[in-house]
Amino acid sequence: MHIKRFLGSYTQNKPGPLLICLAGIHGNEWAGVQALDLLLKMLEVEPITNPSFSFHGKILCLLGNLPALRSRMRFIDHDLNRLWDPSRLNGQFTIPEGLKETLQLKMLKGIIDKEIRQNGHRQIILLDLHTTTAAGGIFTLPTNQPESLRIAETMHAPVIKGVIEGLDGTCIRYYSEKYNDAVTGLVFEGGQHDDPLSVNRCIAAVINCMGTIGCVDLAHIENRHNQLLVEYSRGLPKVARLLYRHSILPGDQFQMKNGYKNFQPISQGEELAEDKLGLVHAQFDGMILMPLYQDQGEDGYFIVEPIQN
Ligand SMILES: [Zn+2]
Fold it and tell me: Residue 276 is part of a domain; what is its CATH number?
């Protein structure tokens, strides 16, 4: 498919919220991109096959890091989802001009800012779609906004609290903090990067979100993808919170031990990884999330604790 910033939009020009869906802010995460592409096509034909289909508000689908998507790499020079630092963005723009991601950030931010300015009268939701290198998990990462939590809780996937607040420079954190409750931010992780079902799960997540915020009446549309989320989440905690994030730097030679998957229970002291200083032991009892099995990335793994099963 052709890689372009504006993947498309859909509206029936009825009053309602603005849902901005973002995919490919990491260039090796194609499932969200394919999901949005398919979803836009589904929305176009839905009124033909389902005359009672009514859409309130507007959905806008954007892509993040275009050069990285073309190269199928997480990023080219710098992680685009770690550059949204308020001190940089609100004051002086000090991101080095040489980075490929600097231009990507400016272009993406220009479009989102304009949409927010033009749609200030509506409820605005920014939904960011991702996938993980490890298997075994889908989950949502809400902000601490009540509306973000409300939307996350309807997605039939574990809700992980505290990760967004624990990460500097993400797009979702930037917009939810800058606009407070006027812009609701939420991340959905759809599964492993190359699992074909990750595409379906991302579609289901966006449809659920459209239902929760009132773009569509879920009773009037068939959502067979939903069952995928329910099945995949079986046995996983409903709500969990972040206990620990293992950040890594280039040159740390971080190497995750093989075989960890999302939500795998771990014990304090367990050998999780190796780096240039030696073995890395689990800091807490809990469940592992997003163990890193790719070269690029600043987070080795996260440890979460279930708070509701
Ligand atoms: Zn990602």
Answer: 2.40.50
